[in-house]
Specification:
The complex is a heterodimer. Chain A has a 20-stranded antiparallel sheet, sandwiched between helices. Chain A is an alpha+beta fold. Helix content of chain B is about 60%, strand content about 5%. Chain B has 23 helices and 4 strands. In chain B, a hairpin with a 2-residue loop joins strand 3 and strand 4. The mean pLDDT of chain B is about 95. The chains are: A alpha+beta, B mainly alpha. At the A-B interface, helix 20 of A face helix 4 and helix 18 of B.
């Protein structure tokens, strides 16, 4: 699907999914106290779809190889199925779970993980379970040891396999867990007060969010962060979760990720859905629910201009960054230790703005909706760098009639001059400021002196920064060629959109084949960098990088962040137009 | 006194750790049972012949010194001959300490590093001539600012004080005159370029030589000083031994250096063959520098970790490659043992311990750390710790920090 067609597909994302399809029920209701829940509607079929997908299958194959290499336990499971079970793994899985599979995690030390495999045919499921147990006993040198259950609880057979594994049959369901207690909670349900609220939240999220995707994952993020905070670990996954909780309070991350992504971590529950549609397109959706508190930086209306991606873009983004509010409410929004850095940045910027203040004179005239364009540039007016990157430009939409663009041009020139002083002190060549004019159009560019014949052209030559006022926009680009490219496009009248309330969507569309061209051209350097960074052999890194380029060549990606009244939806849609 | 004794496993491990960063099993096995002299000469000869890999040039245009640091550290993990060459290059990097922080151009920093790699085991005199007009050195010690009428003495002073003679073997007048003789150089297109009009071609007198001296003549005057072989002998001795040399040992090593026509490889071979080097008191007696410790631990444990992270680990321990703290390089020995450096060593040991799955007791025995010390019994011997904790204790132990 071309880039603009992908962008055109954004609209449905903003809709509340609950209004489109009747929700299916849970595959298997977990007991109270569940921290995380996963369900696969048809695991064997989903695995078959993914493992026969022309683009995803090789990727999954490599991931599986890596997982097998890292995990002796997983290797033992695979060996067990290959050597000790007569039927292929997917056939066994199909018989055990053709009505779906679910898994849940409950709080214990170590965390208790329970799988429930539902069969449409109870007898077939029971036979498959017993055959597996028999093969397991055979494989471990105790033939016949698991032919009969080790006990029967309330009429349900139950096998305890050492201290590590418990298997039970309840109706048409096979239960497998590393915790006997967790099995007991299903086999003989108790009325637990603890965790009841979490279960209610899961049921509510499932009924509101699930549309029968291949995979549905729910995490009680609020409970998880509470437990993590109580554990107070300084390292490991718990510490990383605790760090995530700090993201919205860090201005740099807030500016980089935007208000939607950064505030997902404030959701009380998070739902992940994965789906591979009939045409082979992949969608991954992460919903953050029950967002509490003020969402001051949230986009509440769509932009008042129509963002247009071009077919030759490597990437195009429509971003929402409300720097005005970030600045005005910085003391309540951000962690105290970041306030000094904000004050420094603001005062430095204001120095270049010749007496204007960001909060009062600049930001009120600049829309929080910003476009980002990335495109390959021909390097017509500067040396072609040995390591090439695509050029990028930010398009700021200004209040019509505002003269703030000219002041921003002047600030840009001041910044380049100051940079030159620092470069001169370091013995580096200075940027030459160039003022361009073609008819009424003027622009500012800064370029390094051309390297002498035979000298390497460093990656810094990817940077020929330039800026200009183009219509009602102010554009700053990493490369002059891109700025001039955009001049022609932005001066063409664009449709004016009516800002719609409650349907704001940020987007980032990435055209894989164009990025793959860059990767291919610099494959040797990428392989070396990956090998040094990841600790892999050159051969492994080459395989990985070639694989990445191969996937990019066949992929278009659309990432979006849609804002709801109290929830945010992050969605990745990957189309594979070149999969054949 | 040199010896023809044969190497046992402990002797081979000692030799390989000092001369080639570490002693993986395969290399120890290759050495055991052979004559020390034969092994050492073969190592040095192979190091001279080891192919030069310039792969990192692919990443130089990125301008990131971190890639060169990582790539160099990875090169130190290569085959044994290559490791000998890299160990010598590291010695010269500490001796002619030049930092990217001031040079600012990764191409120049890499070119100097390549000089140490290609010329480090050869004639020290040629190396010194090359270093004095090395572009990175010219920037680092302000050689590019040194011109007729406006002499800059930095390069001349360090040439005498740190590179070739040592304090007390020259006087202030020698420095001033040498600075004039070293004038005229600049860096163009990342190469040293001599500009005649910037050169002070007047009469000078340096270390007893007079005339219209230029760069070549000044370096030759320095090399002709009796102090020079002694200064370099001290550096070579300290690289291989735990303790500073006695005056008699300095004199003997200097004589050997001169007799070998200043050949660094042959002089190191001579040092590494002597009974003094193989004495029991010399073994496991030298505190490993951070880079030595990181590389040795990876080599001997068999762990595979990203080179960029390992270079950062060494930096946290106090030795960031291509960024020495000053023109004096790194202070070694006990100076490596700061509290933050020690913590960084512990953290690194834990990462390595988590990346391998060898039985801790077997690892301790293989690395020569297992003995009856109390910590070993508590942490490794009685099996009460997790394997990762026990391996960490082995790799972070004071015994293993020594080489």
């Amino acid at each position: 699907m071309p880039l603009f067609a992908l962008l055109a597909a954004i609209a449905p994302i903003a809709q509340d999914p609950a209004t489109t399809t009747a929700p299916p029920s849970l595959v298997h209701a977990p007991p109270s106290g569940c921290l995380a829940y996963l369900e696969l509607r048809s695991p064997a079929e989903s695995i078959r779809e993914f493992t026969t997908h022309p683009v995803l299958a090789p990727l999954l194959g490599e991931l599986a190889k890596g997982a097998l290499a890292d995990s002796p336990e997983l290797r033992r499971v695979v060996e067990f199925f290959e050597e000790d079970v007569d039927d292929p793994f997917l056939d066994v899985l199909g018989r055990l779970s053709d009505a779906g599979m679910s898994a849940w995690v409950t709080l214990a030390q170590p965390p208790a993980v329970t799988f429930a495999l539902d069969s449409s045919d109870a007898a077939a499921g029971d036979t498959a379970t017993r055959r597996l147990l028999s093969a397991l006993a055979e494989a471990t040198g105790h033939p016949g040891a698991l032919d009969a259950p080790t006990e029967v609880v309330e009429g349900n057979p139950l096998w305890s396999i050492g201290d590590e594994l418990t298997v039970a049959r309840v109706g048409a369901t096979t239960l497998v867990s590393n915790s006997r207690t967790s099995i007991d909670l299903v086999v003989s349900p108790k009325r637990l007060v603890r965790g009841k609220r979490a279960l209610a939240k899961l049921l509510e999220a499932h009924s509101r969010r699930s549309r029968g995707e291949d995979a549905f994952v729910w995490v009680d993020y609020g409970a998880l962060t509470t437990f993590v905070g109580m554990a107070g670990e300084a390292a490991g996954p718990a510490a990383r979760i605790a760090e995530l909780a700090e993201v919205p309070r860090r201005p740099r991350l807030q500016s980089l990720l935007g208000p939607g992504i950064s505030q997902v971590v404030e959701a009380s529950s998070v739902v992940l859905k994965v789906d591979l549609d009939a045409k082979g397109a992949l969608s991954v959706e992460l919903d953050g629910d029950d967002l509490a508190g003020e969402r001051a930086l949230w986009a509440h209306t769509s932009p008042d201009f129509a963002a247009t991606a071009r077919t030759n873009d490597c990437a195009h983004a429509l971003l929402y960054r409300d720097f005005g509010t970030m600045l005005a409410e910085r003391e309540s929004l951000f962690e105290p230790k970041s306030l000094a850095a904000i004050a420094t940045t603001v005062s430095q910027l204001e120095l270049f703005l010749g007496g204007l203040t960001l909060a009062d004179d600049v930001l009120p005239h600049v829309s929080p909706w910003i476009e980002m364009v990335s495109r390959e540039v021909p390097f017509a007016r500067s040396p072609r760098p040995d390591l090439r990157l695509p050029a990028a430009a930010f398009v700021f939409h200004l209040e019509p009639g505002s003269n703030i663009g000219e002041r921003l041009d002047a600030a840009f020139q001041g910044i380049v001059s100051t940079t030159n002083i620092q470069r001169a002190q370091n013995g580096q060549p200075s940027y030459r400021l160039e003022l361009g004019r073609e008819g009424d159009f003027t622009w500012t560019a800064a370029m390094l002196p051309s390297p002498l014949e035979g000298d390497p052209v460093d990656a810094s030559y990817n940077l020929v920064p330039a800026c200009a006022v183009i219509g009602d926009t102010w554009v700053v680009a990493t490369h002059q060629e891109l700025l001039l490219d955009l001049r022609d496009e932005l001066t063409t009248p664009r449709s004016v959109a009516s800002p719609a309330t409650g349907s704001a969507v940020e987007t980032l569309a990435i055209h894989g084949p164009r990025l793959a061209t860059f990767a291919r051209e610099q494959m040797d350097a990428l392989v070396l960098a990956n090998s040094l960074n990841e600790g892999k052999t050159r051969e492994q890194s080459r395989k990985d990088m070639e694989g990445l380029a191969w996937i990019l060549e066949r992929s278009d990606v659309l990432l979006s962040v849609a804002y709801g009244p109290d929830h945010v939806v992050l969605r990745a849609e990957v189309d594979f137009p070149g999969r054949n | 006194m040199t010896t023809t004794a044969r190497l046992d496993a402990a002797g081979a491990r000692h030799l390989l750790r000092r001369l080639a960063f570490g002693a993986p099993v395969r290399d120890v096995e290759r050495c055991v049972g052979r004559e020390r002299g034969e092994v050492v000469e073969e190592l040095v000869a192979d190091a001279r012949a080891a192919p030069i890999d310039e792969e990192v040039r692919l990443l130089l245009p990125a301008g990131e010194v971190e890639y060169v640091q990582a790539w160099w550290l990875e090169s130190m993990l290569g085959p044994v001959a290559q490791r000998v060459r890299e160990r010598v290059a590291l010695m010269w990097h500490g001796h002619f300490a030049t930092s990217f922080d001031k040079v600012g151009d990764v191409h120049l920093v890499y070119a100097q590093n390549e000089l140490f790699r290609t010329a480090g085991l050869g004639d020290f005199r040629a190396l010194l001539h090359a270093v004095v007009v090395d572009p990175a050195m010219l920037v680092w010690l302000d050689g590019v600012e040194n011109e007729k009428g406006r002499p800059n003495e930095n390069l001349a002073r360090e040439l005498m004080e740190l590179f070739a003679l040592g304090i007390g073997n020259y006087d202030e007048r020698d420095v001033k005159e040498a600075a004039r003789a070293l004038s005229g150089w600049t860096v163009r297109q990342r190469r040293a370029s001599f500009v005649a009009r910037r050169f002070d071609d007047g009469e000078k007198s340096v270390l007893g030589r007079s005339g219209r001296l230029g760069t070549r003549e000044v370096v030759e005057a320095v090399l002709a000083s009796e102090a020079c072989p002694r200064w370099i002998a001290r550096r070579l001795f300290r690289t291989l031994h735990a303790a500073d040399p006695s005056e008699a040992e300095v004199a003997a090593t200097a004589r050997e250096l001169v007799a070998n026509e200043f050949d660094v490889g042959r002089t190191l071979s001579w040092l590494a063959t002597r009974e003094r080097f193989h004495a029991e008191t010399e073994r496991a007696a030298r505190i490993s520098g951070p880079v030595e410790y990181v590389v040795r631990t990876l080599l001997e444990s068999g762990a595979s970790l990203p080179a960029t992270e390992c270079a950062r680990d060494a930096a946290r321990m106090g030795q960031e490659l291509l960024r020495p703290p000053s023109v004096e390089g790194w202070h070694e020995g006990r100076a490596w043992m700061s509290s933050t450096g020690w913590l960084a060593r512990m953290r690194f040991a834990r990462r390595v311990a988590g990346a391998v799955d060898e039985d801790p007791a077997e690892l301790a025995a293989r690395l020569g750390v297992a003995d009856s010390r109390p910590w070993y019994d508590v942490v490794v011997g009685n099996g009460s710790s997790s394997d990762v904790d026990a391996r960490t204790a082995v790799l972070a132990s004071a015994e293993y920090q020594l080489q």
